[in-house]
Amino acid sequence: MSKSSASASGHALWSKMPKANTELFALTYGSLVTELIRDYDNADEVNSQLDRIGHSIGVRCVDEFLSKAEVGGINIPPCQTMKDTADVVARIGFRMFLGVSAEVANHAPDGSAFSLFLYDNPLSIFVELPTAEEAAVISGGRGGCDLSKIKYSNIYCGVIRGALEQVNLKVDCRFVRDV
Amino acid sequence: LSAERAAAKIERLGFDVGYRLCERLAQSKPLGPGLPPPGSAGAAAAGGAVDPAAMQLEAVKFLCKEFWTEVFRKQIDKLQTNHRGVFVLKDHELRWLRRLPPEDETARVAAIKMLAFPCGLIRGALSNLGIAAVVSCDFLADGKNMAACSFNIKIKS
């Protein structure tokens, strides 16, 4: 799928979706992460819960994506290679649900892996995560959660994993770097 | 996790979000004539000439119009008050409840759980405006329309 037609499709689908207030979205997600930290108090557990939540969302996203595309008369040809999949996820999928496209890069030589770059992450517009030293100060000697290890936007990993699983692609998705 | 604890959690989530969202939204909007902008210290003391009941009404009106529009893309349909610190806000079609199957008991139960979040939103927004209140909700669905609900605000005096 050519780049420009993918972007155009993404934009068209985005315009058909009912919208919500970005700040409400970001703040609600922030409250959710806060509650998770309060409940589990362990960075790895929080990350895996976010991944699990994302997975449930992703599974439903795919149906929405395909049905909206069909209704809107937007043709998404079946993906032949991983590269096509990457483009569809980044340019159309992300664009449709979040309003921002992701960039694709770093294709592995055997075509089995790729990187997604999200420059404008709507979830983290108000967020600062502490560095390792600050996190140590915050937890005090409580032995509680190491806040710097939290992958704040880990829900995306779950969404991608869940969505691709529905189209019979088992993937592993990990955050390399979060803001 | 028991139902009450879950509801309390969701309400607390709503409170945090409502508090912060109100902070953002109220920054640029003056709350009626002669009222200091929210967040300024000693606002209550400085507003000696301002009638607290009028200020409460202004705050609730802001909630019904601007705040509700930002969150639900429409205004509150009906506002009632007894002018003694009790307000009833009615929304005849809450977006979040629109897709519930009509006349379904599990849907009712689910809706009541979901309404805890907007209750928290209201309480948080009022708290940001300097008003402490207790908010409860009622599900007004009449079989066909599952999205009607009302929120009762009781200002703590």
Mind explaining what this structure looks like?
The complex is a heterodimer of chains A (179) and B (157). Chain A is mainly α. Chain A has helices spanning 3-16, 22-40, 43-71, 82-98, 132-139, 155-166, and strands at 103-105, 115-117. A two-stranded antiparallel ribbon of chain A has the order 1-2. In chain A, helix 2 (22-40) runs antiparallel to helix 3 and helix 3 (43-71) packs across helix 6 (155-166). The model of chain A has no long low-confidence stretch (mean pLDDT 82). Chain B is α+β, with helices and mostly antiparallel strands. In chain B, 46% of the residues lie in helices and 15% in strands. In chain B, helix 1 (3-26) packs across helix 5 (116-128). Chain B is globular. Chain A binds chain B through residues 21, 23-24, 27-28, 30-32, 34-35, 126, and chain B through 9, 12-14, 16-17, 20-21, 24, 70-71.
Question: How would you sum up this structure in a few lines?
Answer:
The complex is a heterodimer of chains A (179) and B (157). Helices cover 55% and strands 3% of the residues of chain A. Chain A has 179 residues and is mostly helical.
Could you estimate the helical fraction of the residues of chain B in percent? 40-55%
How many DSSP-defined strands of chain A? 2
Low-confidence stretches of chain A: none
Mean pLDDT of chain A: 82
> Largest sheet of chain B, order of strands side by side?
1-2-4-3
Largest sheet of chain A: 2 strands, antiparallel
Note the quaternary state here.
heterodimer
**Strand residue percentage of chain B:** 15-25%
Helix content of chain A: 55-70%
* Largest interface summary: A-B, 11 and 11 residues
So what's the overall shape of chain B? globular
Structural class of chain B: alpha+beta
Average pLDDT for all residues of chain B: 82
Strand content of chain A: under 5%
Approximate shape of chain A = globular
- With helices defined by DSSP (H or I, 4 residues minimum), what is the helix count of chain A? 6
